[in-house]
């Protein structure tokens, strides 16, 4: 074994080179912070193993921020509806992304292989990310106020020290286990499976479908041209290994869709339907992100998306910590608290879906179907469900965060018009559509959102900025002609985080 290598004192270690670890490296690079990714696999996820396949609208905002949205769109198929049907071939409820309060009224369906290739290319292009494939992390911990790793690579075993390190190594995270961080597991009492096929089928590529048959619920998602995901429940007494063989997956598929024209069986996997939540996301110089922190279970893209958004929320904070910000402990505490709340929110939504997939009672199934039919008659209910699934309505609990509490000398508001503390910045309303607002700064933006007097707004914004403990950019005319400005007799400012969430709303009467 080599002696401890001290050459990594100016880099951050990331264990895991999946979508979340790669996303985090790109965020760090935007702040000129270099990182090293250690990944056991020699190559990205196989093209035949589609795995995480969905970019939700909120995730597409992140893709826009890092400059990858057009490339993701070019490789994706778009889904704009999700439908629930009963066993008698009657539609119960349709969720339409076309009605979202978002510029992106669709999900981009893309195999994980393509997502990883795009993110890896973008990471390497920054010149600040090193990806060490075929490197197995054996042991981790904290040593001498630094993050310690023992890594086995092609040249042998090395001991490495970093100022900070992140575990992005998935639901079975070795990092989490070795740091002694406990998890709470929610079990929904069933096994489920996914099987991917290349096939022709008489279904719209723009619609995903779940059939809530109590005998065996199943569903279909298109994830690239001519490629479909088939999901199905495993019933009592059925073995996971047998139920994911090619013959069994094909047999079940043709039972549900006898008109399917099969070309290739690609891949199948079975899993226990459950979710995990870590008791904390930080231990010394180590942090957790993605499934290592909160395993979501397969839920139409929410798992990868909440992980990527978590990397966005962590990245700017970790950059501040790396550069020795005096409020580092507060900054990282805020990430931990807010991301736990955000992931719990999604897990609670997933729990409803998973419990429905586990339902075996015909009587309860009839009651459920009646409830979904009633919900279908109220467009606001369906819209709210869709916006929650798309993550565009999520509100982060920021009231105890340092970038909220530091403004205690100012009059703060939780909500003014479309501006809500903890929610993402509102979309601009134009004559024809919603428009994404992405302040150009990588830092906090002090944004004028009410009352028109540029000179006075600049003067007040400078005072707010002087009190603010983080680097910030002042924007007083970005929304000058926008209909999302508040109608107020007072001057109103929103402090917007780099991840586009509003950390504070300040009202000033002059």
Describe this structure in words.
This protein has 510 residues and is of the alpha+beta class. 31% of the residues lie in helices and 31% in strands. The chain has a seven-stranded mixed β-sheet with strand order 6-5-14-15-16-13-17. Strands 8-2-1-12-19-18 form a six-stranded mixed β-sheet. A hairpin with a 2-residue loop joins strand 21 and strand 22. The chain is globular. It starts with 11 loop residues before the first strand and ends with a strand. The model has no long low-confidence stretch (mean pLDDT 91).
Topology, pairings included?
Elements (H helix, E strand, L loop, with lengths): L11 E4 L3 H12 L4 E5 L14 E2 L1 H9 L3 H7 L1 E3 L1 E5 L5 E6 L10 E3 L2 H14 L3 E5 L2 E8 L2 E8 L2 E7 L1 E4 L6 H5 L4 E18 L6 E5 L6 E7 L2 E8 L5 H4 L2 H11 L4 E18 L3 E2 L2 E3 L13 H21 L5 H31 L3 H15 L2 H11 L12 H4 L5 E3 L1 E2 L2 E2 L7 E2 L4 E2 L8 E7 L3 H14 L4 E4 L15 E6 L5 E7 L2
Parallel strand pairs: 1-2, 1-12, 2-8, 5-14, 12-19, 25-26
Antiparallel strand pairs: 3-7, 4-7, 5-6, 9-10, 10-11, 13-16, 13-17, 14-15, 15-16, 18-19, 20-28, 21-22, 23-24, 25-27, 27-28
Helix pairs in contact: 1-4, 1-8, 8-9
